[in-house]
# Entry
Amino acid sequence: MPLVAGQKYTLTFTGRASSPRSVAVGIGENGGSFARSLDTEADLMPTGKEFSHTFTAPVTNPSAQLQMAHGGFRGAEVSKRDRSGPRRD
# Structure
């Protein structure tokens, strides 16, 4: 997904897991130094929850990627809706 420096973006997704656990969530470079424009965590629960993170891209990145790391846990489920951005306030 392309990011433009100085623009605001919102990542929204729903996540759940069979037991409580945290997953790392990021948007960043697909290679190189793997620098991230968004670096956060989501605390998943069995009931499911919607997460929304707004961030400003620090640099232009024409091929940023969504990164989610759940550490190989079984029972984690995440669904991603359409990405949005740039967002103007």
